[in-house]
Amino acid sequence: MSRRETTSPPPPLTPPEIRQLNGAVREASVPPLATPVTRGSLADIPFDNAQQAPAEAVLSRKGQYGRWTDVTAAAFADEVLAVAKGLIAEGLVPGDRLAIMARTTYEWTLLDFAAWAAGLVTVPVYPTSSAFQTRWILQDSGAVAIAVESAAQAAALGPERDRLPDLQHLWTFEKGHVQRLAELGREVPDEEVTARRGMLGPDSLATLIYTSGTTGRPKGCALTHGNFFAEVDNAIELLHPVFKSVSKEPASTLLFLPLSHVFGRMVAVGCLRARVRLGHGPSIQTEDLLADLAGFRPTFLLAIPYVLEKVFNTGRATAEKMGRAASFDRAAAIARRYGEAVEAQQHGTGPGPGPGLRAARALYDPLVYRRIRAALGGKVRYAICGGSPLGRRLAAFYAGAGIQIFEGYGLTETTAAATVTPPLKPRLGTVGWPLPGTKVRIAGDGEVMLRGGQVFRGYWDPGAGGVTPAVEDGWFPTGDLGHLDADGYLTITGRKKDILITTGGKNVAPAPLEDWLRAHPLVGQCMVVGDNRPYITALITLEPDGIAHWCRMKRKEHLPVVQLVKDPELLETLQRAVDEANKLVSRAESIRRFTVLATDFTEEAGHLTPSLKIRREAVLGDFAEEVEALYDRR
């Protein structure tokens, strides 16, 4: 029986151990489900798979005409070995840093594992990074080599080479350089790779992943092989239905989020570890992604809320075009009621869906819910969601539509998830319990503190000779604010550094309002303003697909965007959305005025990080006049 096929039941859930102080829950912890790894490294995974299940499909590659071809464990191990030997032939030595700058592709994962097998440390770079941002990461990490996806990326780095004295190699996927590495290593004995793998242990440095740099220069997070093992092994055991097939349908996923982000990287490692068939989707453009999902047909997805919001909003827009918007809205309401009823039943606080609700859900399944599932490939039953809050309403909808959401919370510094929704115990609107082996503490000022095997070693500091610790007494201060409920579920309320303080002395966390409004089909980005101001306001941008559909339905395609942002009907629609968002907060925290911008926040303009987080100071600087106008009552 393979690692990914099991008839055994999932391990019993252990509720968090709770500690209270003055009547408030201050700490929650869950014991590990997986035995800690004491020897070996991530580099061993492909070779262990090849030994244990050589014929099992562990990856799939998309070829011509959109056809997917499986890659067996034995074939992948052979490729990893060949490329690792090529890296050795090129003169890279254990501990050297190898940067990878590419979209989510097969070559990315292949080079990642080959680099580990050669004893190297990989350094992801977002493929959308500017030449300056890339140069900074290469300089700071001391990378001796970089592999990029395209010739254009290689050309952009050309003028920077004289400022990168450590950089000795530049390889390009498009030019077949990964295959050339495999050819170069033919004379290197296999035993050299075996020896380098033998030098690695759980405490060895695996990767430097740079933070998105919302308030300054990115910082390199030093993650060890043991950090990844603690993360993925406990996640695999906890999320038993996701990673371990319990039917004839083998578990599989199409990864389309960036491998340069710790979230995507963790799932790639976890899939190889659990021998879950993994495919790569390099494009998140709607048409490309839907085509990849239809061709691959995964059983679960790793997603950020934007993707699930997009699928929902596209489904409603399609229904509206067909004159069935009211029917879709009824179906959505029934799905939410169904999801909430199941949640209550699982917690023992309700009887579950009644006969009428079950009948209504069955009626709308072929009309609405099946189409939602079909947009995700048709076989998806689970989605692991993170990056920002999904929201209770959307989580309940997907649960009612037949897709169970596992929402999680974590940071680069915690190798992705530190908390996650426990199976069969969802609490919609929260980010779940501590991942097994993790402790969560709420500090006196509300800051979330984390402790566990997945917490990183520290930040990379070449000036200090390597890694500088960032953990105080074993606890990592996240900079996020949150609270634990009586059962140990964590809710994130915002970032400490983002808290706005009005002239009236009211502390306002902008995240709940921003997240709610960003889920609206017409809203692209939202930034709440109000620091040292008399009241709260907001800058709103328009979502291109959503506003295009709205204009078609309202027959306003002729309106240029500068007029559209002042259109009374559009402003009335957005005002209703703002009014709904304001129900989440008190009067003093509510949005009193907003303005719609004629341009979007973009990474190119410096408004967004590569992970799409808002750079608030940059936005405030570029839209200072619009902000001032919100407080000008003349």
Characterise this structure.
This protein has 634 residues and is an alpha/beta fold. It folds into 3 domains: 42-272, Rossmann fold, CATH 3.40.50.12780; 299-495, Roll (Luciferase, domain 3), CATH 2.30.38; 500-631, ANL, C-terminal domain (GMP Synthetase, Chain A, domain 3). Helix content is 37%, strand content 22%. The strands form 8 sheets. Strands 1-2-18-19-22-23 form a 6-stranded antiparallel β-sheet, with no helix packed on it. Strands 13-14-15-16-17 form a 5-stranded mixed β-sheet. Helix 3 (106-117) links the parallel strand 5 and strand 6. Helix 1 (45-52) runs antiparallel to helix 2 (73-89) and helix 12 packs antiparallel against helix 13 (325-346). The longest helix is centred in the middle third of the chain and has 22 residues, at 325-346. It is globular. Belongs to the ATP-dependent AMP-binding enzyme family.
Strand count, sense and barrel status of the largest sheet are:
6 strands, antiparallel
Q: How much strand content do the residues show?
A: 15-25%
CATH architecture assignment name of the largest domain: 3-Layer(aba) Sandwich
What is the average per-residue confidence, as pLDDT, rounded to a whole number?
92
Give the number of domains. Answer: 3
Q: Which class best fits the helix and strand makeup?
A: alpha/beta
Instruction: Count helical runs.
Output: 21
Terminal residue distance: 74 Å
Q: Which residues sit in consecutive blocks of at least 5 with pLDDT less than 50?
A: 1-7
- Largest sheet, spatial ordering of strands: 1-2-18-19-22-23
Shape: globular
CATH homologous superfamily classification of the largest domain: ANL, N-terminal domain
Rg over CA atoms, rounded to whole Å, is 25 Å
What is the tally of beta strands? 28
Question: Mind telling me the CATH class of the largest domain?
Answer: Alpha Beta
Say what the CATH topology of the largest domain is.
Rossmann fold
